[in-house]
Specification:
By secondary structure, the protein is α/β, with parallel strands linked by helices. Strands 1-2-3-4-7-8-9-12 form an eight-stranded parallel β-barrel, surrounded by four helices. Strands 5-6 form a two-stranded antiparallel sheet. The chain has a two-stranded antiparallel ribbon with strand order 10-11. The radius of gyration is 18 Å and the shape is globular.
Length: about 290
């Protein structure tokens, strides 16, 4: 298979292969997962920083076996409130303690004077680009490394837009000099909710910024309204968009998100295996040989 941009194993990704989110409610069942079945795992740092006792020991057992990534929930990188630098410092300490490879957050916000308990859209304006990029650079300065921003799902555009979503994302990534967490399901969700071509959107993203990817299921509220729930199996249209994404960029590390309605681990592993099969299909021959030599 010839790809437009064959980056898999040629780009300095923080992890490789196919990943799965670790969820506390199924930790015991997930402890049976082998490293040849799942290449890396991901957690929200807010759910694990400071956790000790039995759960802390179980978490340590996972981080000793698997490569790990952090995907934040509450940094509120686009919000008006002061940046929570104490949280960033705690994340940096947590990463060091567990040898965690990389940290990402949502390109959105979730707090002002208090926590809003939702991920809200940032206005697509030049002023917002500068505001967000400044905050990302500050986080990177504290951590001493690049982080990734995820293209977020949203349902009502923030007022006062001066640019398209894709141009806003690219401007933030460039000005902040950060990486991209490419969420394939979020592209599909937003394409339905806001009426754009998901393939054209995906192809406009900068290949050199990709750190890794997400894929997930969602809920169909109506023909023109999809809710990004991470609570269902990945649908065929999203798998097909992942195929087209790998065909365009080359295969890159990708994680299956499942946050509730969690099925037996065997079913999760079936979806992870679908990611692996697609990665093998769209990896260039030299990359496959490098993986085999491992």
């Amino acid at each position: 298979m010839t790809t437009a941009n064959s980056h898999y194993f040629n780009q300095d990704y923080p992890v490789h292969g196919a990943g799965l989110g670790l969820r506390r409610e199924v930790m015991d069942e997930m402890s049976s997962i082998r490293t040849d079945q799942v290449d890396f795992m991901e957690v929200a740092p807010e759910n694990w920083i400071g956790v000790g006792g039995a759960y802390g020991k179980k978490f340590r057992a996972f981080t000793e076996r698997f490569d790990f990534l952090l995907h934040g929930l509450s940094l509120s990188i686009g919000g008006p409130a002061e940046l929570d630098e104490s949280l960033v410092k705690a994340i940096g300490k947590f990463m060091h303690e567990h040898g965690i490879k990389f940290y990402s957050e949502h390109l959105s916000y979730c707090s002002d004077d208090g926590h809003l308990y939702d991920l809200l859209p940032i206005p697509f304006t030049e002023e917002a680009v500068h505001h967000v990029a400044d905050r990302i650079r500050r986080v990177q300065d504290i951590l001493g490394c690049q982080i990734a921003m995820e293209n977020a799902s949203y349902y009502t555009p923030a007022p006062g837009a001066e640019m398209q979503e894709i141009d806003f994302i690219k401007a933030v990534l460039d000005e902040a000099d950060c990486k991209l967490l490419l969420d394939v399901n979020n592209i599909y969700v937003n394409s339905i909710n806001h009426g754009y071509d998901p393939v054209a959107f995906m192809q406009a993203l900068p290949a050199e910024r990709i750190a890794y990817g997400h894929i997930a299921g969602h809920y169909n509220e109506a023909d023109d309204l999809i809710v990004d729930t991470h609570g269902a199996d990945v649908i065929d249209n999203v798998w097909q968009l992942l195929d087209k994404t790998y065909q365009h960029f080359g295969a890159f590390p990708t994680l299956l998100e499942r946050d509730f309605n969690i099925p037996p681990v065997a079913e999760l592993l079936t979806e992870v295996e679908q990611i692996k099969q697609r990665q093998h299909k769209y990896a260039i021959p030299d990359a496959i040989n490098e993986q085999a030599r491992g």
